[in-house]
Amino acid sequence: MLTDPIADYLTRIRNASKARHRVVEIPASNLKKEITKVLYDKGYIFSYKFEDNAIQGVIKIALKYDPITKLPAILNLERVSKPGLRKYVHHVELPRVLNGLGIAILSTSKGVVSDKEARTMNVGGEVLCYVY
Questions:
Q1: How far is residue 94 from each of residues 5, 46, 89, 119, measured CA to CA in Å?
Q2: Neighbours of 56 (CB within 10 A)
Q3: How far, CA to CA in Å, does 126 sit from each of 51, 56, 91?
Q4: How far is the first Cα of the chain from the last one, in angstroms, to the nearest whole number?
Q5: Contact 114, 105 (CB under 8 A)
């Protein structure tokens, strides 16, 4: 049993990226699927596929690398809100990651969105992670 499935999700992507794997498989949940969609929309992953082959299902994520330098598109993933200490922000206090070069992924009342989308919708919520 995992106490923090989002931290496990981020760690699997981080480890696969450092090991230069092309595809990583992660146990699925609705929140993980929404985070995967945000990462794809912002261009941090190449593609993804949801497979419902078992009770829980699997998310297959194809990681993205620079074709010339072979560096991964995701340099760092950082978990912000943890089960022991949740981090909530108001819409005027939304964080800027690396002065706008990275993104913060938030869980809001309008769904899981990036910090830029939350600013345009004027909603706050729980800061799940930083990606850059």
A1: 24, 27, 6, 7
A2: 9
A3: 27, 25, 11
A4: 29
A5: yes
8 Å CB contact between 107 and 31: yes
What's at 17, amino acid-wise? S
Q: Which of 120, 108, 116 is nearest to 43 (CA)?
A: 116
The pTM of this model reads: 0.94
CA dist., res. 77 & res. 121, Å (int): 24
Q: Give me the torsion for CA of 19, 83, 96, 63, rounded to 10°.
A: 20
Per the CB < 8 A criterion, the answer to whether 6 and 32 are in contact is: yes
Question: Residue 70 CB: number of other CB atoms within 10 A?
Answer: 8
Which residue in this structure is represented by tokens 């330098």? 69
Predicted confidence at residue 7, as pLDDT, reads 97
pLDDT of residue 53: 79
Q: Would the CA dihedral through 5, 9, 12, 18 be positive or negative?
A: negative
Q: Is 27 strand, coil or helix?
A: strand
- Angle between helix axes 30-41 and 5-18 (nearest 10 degrees) is 40
**Token pair 């800027």 is at which residue?**
96
Q: State which residues of the chain have pLDDT below 50.
A: none
